Each structure stands twice: as structure tokens, then as C-alpha cells.
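Blinded run. Sample ID left blank on purpose so nobody reads anything into the name before looking at the predicted structure. Input follows.
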Amino acid sequence: MASPVSAAGAYAATNRLANPLGAAAGVAGAAGGVASGGPSFTDTLTQVLDTAVQAGKVADKQASAAAQGKADMVDVVTAIAESESALETLVAVRDRVIAAYEEIMRMPV
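Blinded prediction complete.
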């Protein structure tokens, strides 16, 4: 079962994906795309991947610092939970891309 910390991180990551223009853009920005001046699909995928990589690096640094006795365990657990939620977001995006590809391949020509 997901912890509240990882659920909150997953929600935040999903919110960033749904509204890449920021909270100030409001609901209109969430439906953005290339036509409305929003980020492209490639930019969104790159952002998700970069977020997952950065969260993994932070978790690695925190775990290393904890092994040396230099980090607080709360910070370590938080970093690992954020890394986990970023990875879950990445996997969810990958699954949606694969599902879309499969749907396109089923279309008659």
C-alpha cells in the first residue's frame, strides 16, 4: 500500500504533468499543447524522465549520507519516497504511450 508521502508525491508529479504551465495558468493551461503554445509531447516526456532521474540521484545521495551517519532518516525516507513516486509516474506515462501506440496500430488503414 502506498504511503501518504508517496501518494502526495505522485499527485504532485501528476499535477505538474497535467498543468505544465504552472498553477497561475489555471485550467486553460492544462489543456494546452503545441497549438496553444504549451510544451510538446517530446518536451513532456523529457520532463518526466528528467524528474525521475533527478529524484533518483537525490535519493542515492541521501542514502549514501545516511550510510555515513550524516543524514537524518526522515530526509532519506522522503527522498526515497519522492524517487519512488517519480518512477511510478514514469511507468504510468510509459504504459499510456504503449497503450496509445497499440490503439493506433489497431486502426484500419
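Unblinding after everyone has recorded impressions. The helical segments are 4-18, 26-30, 41-67, 73-106.
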